[in-house]
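Exercise 7.
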Amino acid sequence: MTRIQDAQIWLGHEFSRPQLLVEALTHRSAAGAQGVGSNERLEFIGDRVLGLVVAEWLIERFPDEQEGKLGPRLAALVSKSALVGIAGASDLSRLLAVAPGEAKRGLSGQATVQADALEALIGALYLDAGLATARKFIRRVMGDAIEQQFTPPKDPKTELQEWALKRALALPNYIVEDMSGPSHQPHFIIKVCVGDAVAKGEGGSKRGAEQAAARAMLAVLPA
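Solution. The predicted structure, written as tokens, is:
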């Protein structure tokens, strides 16, 4: 069975335009081979489709909540970390096409690459079969996550800021300690300071690294 067949089984859809699926599974490092483009364009639209479907789902699931609570729920569900969890559980990395050199370096297993590919697959589903098909897939793979959101989650940076304010401390200070990698695949290391406490976080974006640093800080601070 080919990786394209495997992908169609996982997605629950047989593509009328299989080229869309091939493109969704092609990382930019492997683009151009046999005329196949990268999955970046499909990721762009898939991100929007995912946000719409999850927002619609939250309105349905929590009919009495207002934007102030729905917003954090949405942000958590469509975050890179949430998408990576779905991609990892389904072993999506094995279906991705990356350049041979990048494959040896483990590119297909990187969190941002898997999350982007998942969004690209959603975009491909939408373009091939419409919103209903994309919605069916999203609800299937995200069902557990949304049912487990008993209370609206707090953004780690917001939670850390509230912790500092309650104790009359200065607001958390985030410092970029290192930025490496190519422009399309950056890697940040950020340090956060609150009072005398220091923690670090890493991520594929500045915001992601800040979130990771705040999460690491909250893990060691007293409640």
